[in-house]
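DATA SHEET
Item: assembly model
Revision: 1
Owner: S.N.
Input lines:
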Amino acid sequence: MALNLKNPQVETRDQRLGTITQWDGRADQLVRDSAFTYGCSKGCDNGGRRLCEQSSPFQQASMCAEHIAVTNATIIQESVVVQHAPIGCAASQSFTARYYRDLAARRGWTLEDPKSICTNLGEQDMVFGGVERLEQTIRDAFERHQPRVIFVATSCATGIIGDDVDGAAKRVEDEIGIPVVTLHCEGFKSKHWSSGWDVIEHGILRRLVPHAPQRQPDLINVIHLGGPDVFSPLLGPLGLRVNLVMGGNTLERLAQMSEAAATVTMCFVLSYLATGLEQEFGVPEVKAPLPYGLDATDNWLRDIARLTGNDDKVEAVIAGERARIAPELARLRKALTGKRGFVAAGAAFAHGLLADLRELGVEVDSAFSFHHDPTTDSGDPKQDSLGHLVDVWGDVPNYTVSPDQHFQAHAALQRARPDFVICRHSGTMAVLAGRMGIPVLPIFYSNDGLGYEGLLTIGRAILRVLPRKRFYDDVAANSSFPYQSWWLAQTDPYAPIAEPA
Amino acid sequence: MLSPVTDNLDASGTFCSSPGAIEQVRYGCSLGALASVIAIPGAVPITHCGPGCATKQFHALSGINAYQGGEFHVPSSNIGNQEVIFGGADRLDELIRSTLKVMQADLFVVQSGCVPGLVGDDVGSVVRSYQRQGVPIVFAETSGYRGNNFTGHETIIRAIIDQFVDANDAPLQHGLVNVWSLLPYQNPFWRGDLTEIKRILEGIGLEVNILFGPASAGVEEWRAIQRAQFNLVLSPWLGLATAAHLEDLYGQPFLHVPTIPIGAKATSAFLRQVVDFAGLDRERAEAFITQEEREYYVYLRDFASFYAGCTSQYRLPSTAIVVSESAYNLAVASFLVEQLGLNPGPMVISENPPVDFRETIQKQYRSLADGAGNEAVFEQDGHRIHDLIRQADLTGELPIVFGSTWEAALADAIGAPLVEIGYPCTDEVVLSRAYVGYRGALALIERTYTTVVRASTMG
């Protein structure tokens, strides 16, 4: 179904993709069930059904779409983000500032704090509306920092009281002459935080990418979650220049997305932007499975080469890269073979890490994904990353979908008893694993596992954390979790909690 | 129920008004008081709010703020469309019921966020049905638009006192004190500081309900609140509403000491004030003070050789700029000015204290340096804070900044070293370090002058 870029509000992924957040079972079962939602190309003719989802009466604090949307707007250079919200939503500012400064150091940008302002709505605003305060804050943002774009993010509170945020943005935009882009990201509207990616990508597509572009045949958009540029070394030898977007951009990079020869997305959770670029600007999206593991990386490069007319160079690049990493890969495989791993991350990224671990010789029969998209925006089954994983590397017998629920993660780890955990969104999972006596590798920058070099990066990082078992065992033996003992012994993340009515 | 300290009402006297837009936020929202609940050993908050609220508050106040950690397994209703449209009281009921099956705690504190406040969930009646069954559970309305984590802190305390601490005929225990001081997690050093405060009060013969942190016995201390001889409010304003409430409820008197003591001079004076108020054994107290001072001044004597002599090549700061919530601002400013002999530079108080308390706070600043002290400025917007510091006349002075991570760029710009003392504090890892009392003062000196030396030697 085509993306609707006319409306300032993005359709949530719950609606577009049938995203679920609660499930437990065999990965191959989830693949099969997911295929029913997009139909024939996986060999079944009855698409359009929704996935069955589990539920639990008990839930723990999760994350919201606003956090993702605001973080990723804030790290766009020369922007100011106005959070139209009570003060609590702006608690993420200090985290975002740390993130931006770290990115800046790694990517060679000016070291400074990103700019964001919260309208700090009070009870009075809840009663009488906060539009006036919003307009004044947008003006202040412009006066203070002379940004080239201002983002205005909504909140649960403004969504409920019904402030006309688009109207306010338009009025001030006409006054100050720079784009004021609204981000409708009320946390209650989607059951998964990854909808926040859609919100910011929707805003970018609608407002920051010009039409009627000049094509640049050697430019390739790389949409990533954030972190260092590990792509140029891989794609440069194919004669391609990398336009690295999301996870911190300049406005120029965003603007030239429509000029590129192709787009690759490094995590299909972010595929809204690539699909939109193809739909609106005819920039083709590379749909090959993501480059996790040797064969997948080969095929990914081949697909890019084909789309950009560089078939003649690609085999040499592949052969060269494989030869380059072979000795170190052999050393890592030797050190890791027989180790048992556990992956906890968001959907496509989790699937990628699972492939990496298996390529490294690690046994991994359990995974924990923070949500599951039965399809992607393109609807192309080549982007079925879980299906691809199961086809190439075999089933994952214990596959849990849970929005970072600590109590469920505890049960899943009790069931798996791995030698180490590799995870993203390090808040809940990392400390949980550590305190259960399991060494943990938290991944902040998701590019770490990509391509040939990614195997080395991940393998080395695992070896660095394994000795910490000595520390974690000590902590585990001398601390406890505030759960009832029956739950602490539980190995089924979705074990029934309430008695039947 | 309005927060007992909510005083920023609009002209109609009905609704709390906002103090205006904020860049570089320096506190959480009322719901952020879930950190105070987590700070009570054995207590677990249950949050009725949107899916990201609780995580965002705790990650900000603990996770990225001096990397404090803490038991964050917070049950949450993670409100979605359905609860917004149809109301969320049933969902909360289901959450509480399942929480009681899964989690183990001595006390549950149900906190509501913005959404239930706006859609009108009757959270109180849901919680009361559990209270009637004898479940140790209380309810605090902590809508984010109603206040910040400071006012939320007093709201949860009041909820616990009113709904959990039994009013009974328990005998008054002479020499037992309840301490109301630093805001847990907001202040990165609260654990070490509360431990030091407890240690010195015990040193002069008191038994101490410190109530929060590793030095607290947990929920049983809260049950013993009513037995205390008196309440000690050791902060410029936070805790006063609680103490006044306890005075009303139980007739407990309270002692208010606005400046948390740092260093021997201030700490000894403070302890003598407590001895007088509580009618404690002076001899015993003086013996403790003497012992503490003997040790403290050995270190201070040795520090003098650095401060006086070995420093000609370093740029020893002469003026202190302090940007912080009022409790640490006043404590640190007093120590730097009164005991280390720095000049008072701009002092900015950033937590938006209730207007009624501001004059009391200003009096403390005016009396610094034999009455030469400047008034503090009350400002929560980072942009304006930095503007006013840049405009300060520092001719001939070598400034040092005590502030938050937000002051890093400012400190660079004015050529001053930065010591992080408050939220957000992203460049310090803090566990048990204290900056108050006798021992804390020495740690503060160490941190300050290590920073100064490194700024001089490492550029």
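QC remark: Chain B touches chain A through 79 residues (CB under 8 Å).
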